[in-house]
Amino acid sequence: MKKYFVLFFAILAFSSCGSNTSIVNSWRDPDVTITQEHFKKVLVVALVKDEASRRITENRIAASNPIFKTSYQYLDATSQLSQEQKLKVLQDEGFDGVISMRLVSKEKEVNYVPGTYTGMYYGGFDGMYTGMYGYGFGNWYGMYSPNFYDPGYYQETTSYMVETNVFSLKQNKLIWTGTTESQYVTDLGQTVDAIMQVVVKEMRKDGSLPPK
């Protein structure tokens, strides 16, 4: 089953577009790698307020690998249990790992994009107003009609900071965590793929996963 876990990350590394997502920071347990854990059954947990977004995120990840299971299938019925009791439920179900993803912050930034002008300015052929004297409408229109001014505008960009964690239930500890920043988000599923892509890249960089 170990190969499925590694293969899952390898597939994501090549199947998504992460141009608008980047790693901000990460940490790994220096004594443990994901490959060494030999995960056989991993719970996928998306900690978001919106239930639809939660299920989209968990389903997106879980559908990529047979050893990944969504948390809403196992934890929703245990909402009244303590953390220790929930942990026991997972252990009884055979889970040995957890991947969690949560939205840390959502920040908006407004930037001004200057206007642009394509063509010559006033003044005609000589760069001076006198350059236009003596020319009819046809000459004037032929000179200036292809030239337009594109006014400046304010552009609002929303940045989503997302934390991704990998836990070992066998050792009951966090073994990897990373924070990513995503901008220009239009599709939740594609963004989840992009996050996992940069996470994989960082894991390969720090030795959590084997190199390509």
Quick structural summary:
This protein is α/β, with parallel strands linked by helices and 212 residues long.
3D structure, described in words:
Residues 1-21 form the signal peptide. Keywords: Signal. This is DUF4136 domain-containing protein. By secondary structure, this protein is an alpha/beta fold. Helices cover 32% and strands 32% of the residues. The protein contains six helices and eight strands, in the order H-E-H-E-H-E-H-E-E-H-E-E-E-H. It has helices at 2-15, 34-37, 51-62, 83-92, 137-144, 188-206; strands at residues 21-28, 42-47, 68-70, 97-113, 116-118, 148-150, 153-168, 173-183. It has a six-stranded mixed beta sheet, with helices on one face. Strand 2, helix 3 (51-62) and strand 3 form a beta-alpha-beta unit. The radius of gyration is 27 Å and the shape is elongated.
